[in-house]
């Protein structure tokens, strides 16, 4: 807080009285001038009259001395009037005593620029400079203290230049925050932090131009800043976090609140994780610090060629290199895509590299430039477990043995289901015991089907074109089922086949200059992964050697 001290004005100096020694001196000089001039004039008149008589001139009606006395008296009267006038002008032109300077609030913190700090400060100047010459209207202005203006409070009795550099003060603030819960609105959150209804409404109105209020979710953070004023706290700024790297800010100005979106600065890094599988790949990845989001992407990428129920065993290893952005404001992290991954299953390496060309989406390739994508995915759902294989089985609902013409993946309700390949939706509706059902035609030979969905993806309908990996629905328990799962079928030339044993055609194979560009990028990624792996090993050795 800035401290203020009251500086008393200097002692009042008496105003000029009507009769002062200086004025008496002026009047005495004027009188002496009048007397001397009168005597000189009288003497000249007498001499003139005498000269006239001696030269034979006609006599004057009155005696010379008497006539000279009358003329002298007239001259004295005129000169006396002139002296009085000069004395009055002397009184009016005499410098007036400056008015009493009003008390000044002095900021004890000198916030001036270094160049101005050598000059006297208006609030603390002890000896004022000589006042500037005033015009007649200014000299006759009222000097009553109650009639001083705000300008007089800052500049009375002190140099104008000094008043111009009075130090500025910083307004103190109080910061408060709110974490949104289920059903919370922005208006309610602001009022809860202490905002009045009018200010809260103005801030919400401004933010609604850049934020969809319907998309505020539980867990989002709201920061409110209040200015401390003499009348209490006043809402000055509102910051609503919209995502890991973006926020909306509304600030109060002269025209009310103005809102804008801001991108938070972050640092881009590569993060490395590795581990050995014991009981499951998921537990091993969690133990190695692999984020859940990155793990789900890893499973999806390998779902083209790896059966996670049968191919993964204890003792297998994995390593993952992925991008990460560290937000500078709060050190939060935003995990990005996988750059490199390698699953070593039964001693066989399955490495993949991310390759991005200008104007094309990023894709993943094996070390020799073969696309990881097949024509169809084997596992079109994240994190699922195989609960029922293809072939004859004892039906869990009907109670008798019958052919199971697909595979079942158990997963929680609401888990996303992906299109196994590029194609066109043939049907997306309720379909008997299949419940909510989707069928996709990929080409003249292959179709895939997905059953028991809880709901379809928004905008999904027959005739819509989809791409491989696009969400088409969500795991559910509609139709004839005992629990939530995905029933997945692959239909080849009108006949249902086992998706897990199907030999699917390979995807794109890089050649020529494109292959050379991929290989150069592959080598750079490999060097980064090796360097981070070695650094981790060295850190682990140092930690184990420490007492």
Automatic annotation (TrEMBL):
Its cofactor is Zn(2+). Gene3D superfamilies: 3.10.450.350, Glucose Permease (Domain IIA). GO terms for molecular function: metal ion binding; metalloendopeptidase activity. GO terms for cellular component: cell envelope. Residues 112-136 have a biased composition (Low complexity). Pfam families: Csd3_N2 (PF19425), Peptidase_M23 (PF01551). Coiled coil: none annotated. GO terms for biological process: proteolysis. Its main location: other. Residues 403-499 form the M23ase beta-sheet core domain. It is found in: Cell envelope. The keyword Isomerase does not apply. Keywords: Hydrolase, Metal-binding, Metalloprotease, Protease, Zinc. Residues 273-392 form the Csd3-like second N-terminal domain. The keyword S-adenosyl-L-methionine does not apply. Residues 112-144 are annotated as: Disordered. PANTHER family: CELL DIVISION PROTEIN YTFB, PEPTIDASE-RELATED. This is Murein DD-endopeptidase MepM/ murein hydrolase activator NlpD. It comes from Rhodothalassium salexigens DSM 2132.
């Amino acid at each position: 807080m800035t401290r203020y001290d009251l500086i008393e004005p200097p002692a009042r100096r008496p105003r000029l009285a009507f009769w002062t020694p200086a004025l008496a001196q002026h009047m005495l000089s004027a009188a002496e001038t009048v007397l001397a001039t009168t005597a000189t004039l009288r003497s000249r008149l007498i001499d003139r009259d005498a000269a006239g008589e001696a030269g034979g001139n006609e006599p004057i009606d009155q005696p010379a001395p008497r006539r000279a006395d009358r003329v002298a008296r007239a001259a004295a009267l005129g000169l006396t009037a002139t002296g009085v006038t000069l004395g009055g002008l002397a009184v009016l032109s005499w410098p007036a005593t400056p008015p009493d300077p009003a008390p000044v609030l002095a900021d004890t913190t000198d916030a001036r620029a270094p160049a101005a700090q050598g000059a006297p400060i208006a609030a603390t100047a002890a000896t004022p400079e000589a006042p500037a010459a005033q015009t007649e209207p200014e000299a006759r202005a009222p000097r009553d203290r109650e009639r001083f203006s705000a300008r007089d409070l800052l500049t009375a009795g002190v140099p104008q230049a000094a008043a111009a550099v009075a130090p500025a003060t910083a307004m103190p603030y109080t910061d408060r925050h709110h974490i949104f819960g289920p059903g919370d609105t922005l208006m309610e959150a602001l009022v809860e932090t202490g905002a009045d209804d009018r200010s809260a409404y103005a801030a919400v109105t401004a933010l609604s131009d850049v934020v969809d209020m319907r998309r505020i979710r539980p867990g989002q953070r709201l920061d409110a800043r209040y200015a401390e004023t003499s009348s209490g706290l006043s809402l000055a700024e509102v910051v609503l976090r919209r995502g890991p790297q973006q926020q909306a800010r509304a600030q109060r100005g002269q025209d009310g609140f103005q809102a804008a979106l801001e991108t938070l600065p972050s640092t881009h890094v590569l993060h490395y994780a590795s581990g050995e599988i014991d009981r499951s790949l998921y537990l091993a990845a969690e133990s190695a610090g692999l984020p859940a989001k990155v793990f789900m992407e890893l499973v999806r990428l390998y779902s083209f060629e790896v059966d996670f129920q049968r191919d993964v065993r204890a003792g297998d290893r994995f390593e993952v290199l992925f991008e990460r952005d560290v937000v500078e404001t709060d050190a939060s992290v935003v995990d990005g895509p996988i750059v490199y991954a390698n699953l070593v299953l039964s001693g066989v390496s399955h490495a993949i590299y991310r390759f991005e060309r200008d104007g094309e989406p990023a894709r993943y390739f094996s070390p020799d430039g073969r696309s990881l994508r097949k024509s169809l995915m084997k596992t079109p759902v994240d994190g699922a477990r195989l609960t029922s294989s293809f072939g004859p089985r004892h039906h869990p609902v009907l109670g008798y043995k019958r052919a199971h013409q697909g595979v079942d993946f158990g997963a929680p309700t609401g888990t996303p289901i992906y299109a196994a390949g590029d194609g066109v939706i043939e049907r997306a509706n309720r379909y008997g015991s299949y419940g909510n059902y989707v069928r996709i035609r990929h080409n003249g030979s292959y179709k895939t089907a997905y059953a028991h969905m809880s709901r379809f993806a928004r905008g999904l309908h027959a005739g819509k074109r989809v791409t491989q990996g696009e969400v088409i629905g969500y795991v559910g328990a509609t139709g004839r089922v005992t629990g939530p799962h995905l029933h997945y079928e692959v239909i080849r030339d009108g006949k249902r086949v086992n998706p897990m044993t199907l030999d699917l055609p390979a995807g794109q194979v890089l050649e020529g200059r494109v292959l050379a560009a991929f290989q150069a990028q592959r080598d750079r990624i490999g060097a980064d992964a090796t360097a981070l792996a070695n650094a981790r090993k060295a850190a682990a050795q140092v930690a184990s050697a420490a007492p």
